User: Fold this.
Amino acid sequence: MALQPWLIGKVNRIENETNDTRRFWIEVPELTSFDFIPGQFVTLDLPIHEKPNKRLRSYSIASWPDGSNIFELVIVLDSGGTGTPYLFNEVKVGTEMSFRGPQGVFTLKESLDEDLILVCTGTGIAPFRSMIHYIKNNNIPHKNIYLIFGCRTKASLLYYQEMSDLQKEIPGFYYIPTLSREQWNGNAGYVHTVYELLCIGNKPAKFYLCGWKGMIDEARTRIADMGYDKKAVNFEIYG
Ligand SMILES: Cc1cc2nc3c(=O)[nH]c(=O)nc-3n(C[C@H](O)[C@H](O)[C@H](O)COP(=O)(O)OP(=O)(O)OC[C@H]3O[C@@H](n4cnc5c(N)ncnc54)[C@H](O)[C@@H]3O)c2cc1C
Assistant:
């Protein structure tokens, strides 16, 4: 496939989501509509290095296709990194950035005829937020959808109220936030125990995993140990 052209994105709005996570809305003035498939990502070319290949950082699109030319990213600050300190400290409303996209194949299959087990940690929720809104807005027939979201504490829950509301609005959608470092009235521990319990008896399911490598490697091993075929597992590794 030919490489996509670089586009200019203009930051349109910025909001803190947690103390180290920020939402960025990016407008693409040269397009009337920025079209993508939920689950895809964009690649930003950030002015952080003279070598082009050291300037590229990819981010899943956290919003859903709505016919507009604005999309949202949700980004966690890695203070030891180069790109996110630039995004958090230098980028303001009105900043222009070169980007390429949409890219990637971490997308839903055409027919959702099995339960979906969506497993993520931190900003790995981004593609799932896009998919869930898309399913709701387009009344896409589906079986049960479980969103298992892991983070450390209540203060680091992303889109908590929104996901809780969606659970009430979408029949068969179950939001299971899981905290690893704080006891609360919800699930505690790691995401892995949650899907292992849900999938006792190996009911037919498709797994989608998104986040950092450690979580994904462990989930892939555990899901295979449960007897699921590799083909039932899709994943997007953030690094
Ligand atoms: C498809 C895809 C989608 C993604 N979506 C998202 C998303 O939606 N939200 C999100 O927050 N992230 C996402 N990411 C991750 C994102 O692309 C970046 O990797 C992340 O933001 C960190 O970038 P950075 O430039 O701040 O860190 P980097 O500069 O890339 O550094 C990363 C880490 O490596 C360490 N490091 C760097 N260089 C060295 C070195 N030479 N030796 C030792 N250690 C080193 C740094 O200390 C740092 O901790 C996604 C990644 C991919 C591939």
